[in-house]
């Protein structure tokens, strides 16, 4: 099993959601992803791409901001724990980018425990900020990676959080 979060990630730089979530964002400003039992809301002006692995139970969905930031979800049907998936993501980022500033994270969002890391590293001439969060969701384990150039990350942090919240709320919250 591999997590696809390497160089390409920086360069490209379940089943229901509530009407109240959409109302908060404004229905003209939000789009909905709803496939394979995964549902989440994202800004309508962001670009969505999907990738399904024909040889594993891994699925990848990415939404890219008009700038360099992106939110990426990978789901895994295997026995890997969220802790192991987060650690593997960290190792892959270390391989690709070398020196990273790493802060371990263990938090709750609603009823869901998320484990992972807040990261900073340099890529070309840019300081890049990244969040890796892993968690169990229905019958899958997931990794969410949010990443943007440092200045843009500050502007997108609430949007990244809202996308993740909409994903978790659609599946895990009554």
Give a structural overview.
- With 174 residues, the chain is α+β, with helices and mostly antiparallel strands.
- It has a single domain, classed as Protein Transport Mog1p, Chain A (3-Layer(aba) Sandwich), CATH 3.40.1000.10.
- Helices cover 29% and strands 43% of the residues.
- The protein contains 4 helices and 9 strands; from the N terminus they run H-H-E-E-E-E-E-H-E-E-E-E-H.
- It has helices at 7-11, 19-25, 82-97, 150-172; strands spanning 30-35, 38-43, 47-52, 59-64, 70-76, 101-109, 112-123, 126-137, 140-149.
- Strands 3-4-5-9-8-7-6 form a 7-stranded antiparallel sheet, sandwiched between helices. Strands 1-2 form a two-stranded antiparallel ribbon.
- The longest helix has 23 residues, at 150-172.
- The protein is globular, with a radius of gyration of 15 Å.
- It starts with 6 loop residues before the first helix and ends with a helix.
- Mean pLDDT is 82; it is low at 1-26.
Structural class: alpha+beta
CATH domain class: Alpha Beta
The amount of beta strand, in percent, is 35-45%
Q: Measure the end-to-end span.
A: 32 Å
Continuous helix count: 4
Share of helical residues: 25-40%
What is the CATH superfamily classification? Answer: Mog1/PsbP, alpha/beta/alpha sandwich
Q: Strand order of the main beta sheet, please?
A: 3-4-5-9-8-7-6
Biggest sheet descriptor:
7 strands, antiparallel
Point out poorly predicted stretches: 1-26
Secondary-structure element pattern, one letter each: HHEEEEEHEEEEH
């Amino acid at each position: 099993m591999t997590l696809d979060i390497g160089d390409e990630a920086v360069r490209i730089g379940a089943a229901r959601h509530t009407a109240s979530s959409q109302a908060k964002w404004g229905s003209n400003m939000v789009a909905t992803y709803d496939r394979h039992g995964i549902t989440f809301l994202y800004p309508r002006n962001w670009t969505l791409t999907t990738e399904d692995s024909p040889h594993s139970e891994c699925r990848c969905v990415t939404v890219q901001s008009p700038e360099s930031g992106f939110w990426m979800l990978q789901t895994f049907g295997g026995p890997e724990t969220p802790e192991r998936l987060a650690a593997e993501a960290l190792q892959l980022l270390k391989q690709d980018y070398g020196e990273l500033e790493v802060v371990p994270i263990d938090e709750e969002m609603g009823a869901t425990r998320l484990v992972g890391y807040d990261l900073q590293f340099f890529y070309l001439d840019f300081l890049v900020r990244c969040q890796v969060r892993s968690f169990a969701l229905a019958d899958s384990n997931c990794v969410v990676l949010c990443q943007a150039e440092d200045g843009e990350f500050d502007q997108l942090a609430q949007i990244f959080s809202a996308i993740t919240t909409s994903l978790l709320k659609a599946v895990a919250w009554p």
